[in-house]
């Protein structure tokens, strides 16, 4: 059986790329496709074992490396250009466009769906507001493009034979947007890399790419009004300078750190704070693997990975008041690092690879027999 693996794009090593790494670890006979590939050599070796990626014409457009999303209107055409006719099984890893590849009735297409297009559906109005596209000619054009993308997105969902969702939260979104059922297989978390540490120090940790929807500014603003509590912020991104400028003396903004340093910070933190609404959220599971309890926004995938009052606590509004109350409540509680670590083991890399390969092999056998 010839197999193709189609991913939206390769330009950073994030949660979706950890899924790709595990799929490549499971199947060594894949041919790779994506709109763009701007990975550095180290990330390509980790994610793809150095494999070559077939890319679309987006790869060659000016400024695609720095901002590929501005070519959104060309994405459907670009993904449909790939000739996959020689493959028996097509696996797509899609949070945007990859599921829209063209296949025939003789080919099996299974999509691992990280989410239906967030900026076209759930985050549509938020996206327009943050991009300052809620009025004027540019706004009209952006809304027109996104309307066309939504139509294409629903139509192209019929090209998928089976959907796999990365959480129950996303399974509901797939049902809402595409009216399709899906099977939940949680993403892989390399919990063996994040060793349990029982001894905690007196600081909280936030670690994330510094972009607006991650809400790191909410944590920093909250701790700026709690001067007796120490916060360490790890990560880089477009909002780095903004975060740095609002940080008070009790807040250390470290910027980018190595993986080994991140693990050390995570192992020793008294609590990990996660204020974003994520589809799954790998990093709160990594924190739990270290025996570190999590203070998380009570929506999205965190409701499936954190056990309230046992491995962490939730706050239910993305406001300073709500987060402050959660921190005060957190400090009244006692957490067992061993219980926290045990909870993380439900999401191991080995578990994902076993469940994923079993699903693919079962559906392949059913389809071709």
Summarize the structure.
This protein has 14 helices and 13 strands. The chain has helices at 15-26, 41-48, 75-80, 124-130, 137-157, 168-178, 216-224, 240-246, 259-268, 282-289, 302-305, 320-331, 337-344, 349-368; strands at residues 3-7, 30-34, 53-55, 89-94, 108-113, 162-165, 182-184, 204-207, 231-234, 251-255, 271-274, 294-297, 312-315. The longest helix is centred in the middle third of the chain and has 21 residues, at 137-157.
Number of alpha- plus pi-helical segments: 14
Helix content: 25-40%
Gross morphology is globular
Which band does the percent of strand residues land in? 15-25%
Element-by-element helix/strand order: EHEHEHEEHHEHEEHEHEHEHEHEHHH
Identify the strand order in the major beta sheet.
3-2-1-4-5-6-7
What is the overall pLDDT average?
Answer: 94
Cα Rg? 21 Å
How far is the first residue's CA from the last residue's CA?
13 Å
Q: Can you summarize the main beta sheet?
A: 7 strands, parallel
- Low-pLDDT residue intervals, each spanning 5 or more residues: none
Structural class: alpha/beta
The strand count comes to 13
How does this model look, in words?
The protein is an alpha/beta fold and 369 residues long. The chain is built from 14 helices and 13 strands. The strands form 2 sheets. The protein has a 7-stranded parallel β-sheet with strand order 3-2-1-4-5-6-7, sandwiched between helices. Helix 8 (240-246) links the parallel strand 9 and strand 10 (251-255). The longest helix has 21 residues, at 137-157. 41% of the residues are buried.
